[in-house]
Amino acid sequence: MPARNAAIWMQRIGQGLPAATTLFFVICAALPIRLPFYAAIAPAFGLIAIYFWTTQRPELLPNSVACLAGLLQDILLGTQLGVFMLVFLVTRALVFNGRAAVLGRPFWVLWLGFGMVSISALMIAWTLVEILSGSNNGFGTVALTAVSPFVVFPFFVWPLFRLDGLIVQVE
């Protein structure tokens, strides 16, 4: 009986890993780390997790988690409420519908898919912030913010693949 209870708990923990890592990535985006280009890359941390888990385990990352992660990111980064909530929900919906194009393919296909998604999602976020704030911060910053996550994607996804392997072992 104790072994069965342990297996049930391990399965529940495994099912919560996508939500926990997504929220962890969003919190990490708000940390005041003094690294070159960190501020440009940080807004995409949550987007990386949303993209990965939606392609690999969409049933474990429901819309409610994407919504909560977006709201948390809006609060922590100081963007207008609803911007990243909307971006994360739209991203999740689009990736969910197109996930068959990357499943079972080489890693570079997943990576290229993220590149297209991140550029689009961060351009939408930038446009919404510009419209809602009534400011014009220029396109140079958003270009760096949209392209930089593509470069660091493999470093963030490698541990997520390892966690995904743990989920498979528990199931």
Q: What this model shows, in words?
A:
The protein has helices spanning 2-29, 38-41, 45-56, 63-77, 83-98, 107-133, 139-170. It is globular and about 60 Å long. It has one domain. The two termini are 18 Å apart. The mean pLDDT is 86. Helix 3 packs across helix 7. By secondary structure, the protein is mostly helical. The longest helix is centred in the last third of the chain and has 32 residues, at 139-170.
Could you give the count of β-strands?
0
Shape designation? globular
Radius of gyration: 17 Å
Helix and strand run: HHHHHHH
Alpha-beta classification:
mainly alpha
Helix count equals 7
Strand content: under 5%
Distance between the termini: 18 Å
Regions with little confidence, pLDDT below 50 for 5+ residues:
none
The total tally of domains equals: 1
Summarize the main sheet.
none
Determine the mean pLDDT: 86
Helix content: over 70%
Topology:
Blueprint: H1 2-29, H2 38-41, H3 45-56, H4 63-77, H5 83-98, H6 107-133, H7 139-170
Keywords, please?
171 residues; mainly alpha; 7 helices; 78% helix; globular
Give a brief outline of the structure:
This protein has 171 residues and is mainly α. The chain has helices at residues 2-29, 38-41, 45-56, 63-77, 83-98, 107-133, 139-170. Helices cover 78% and strands 0% of the residues.
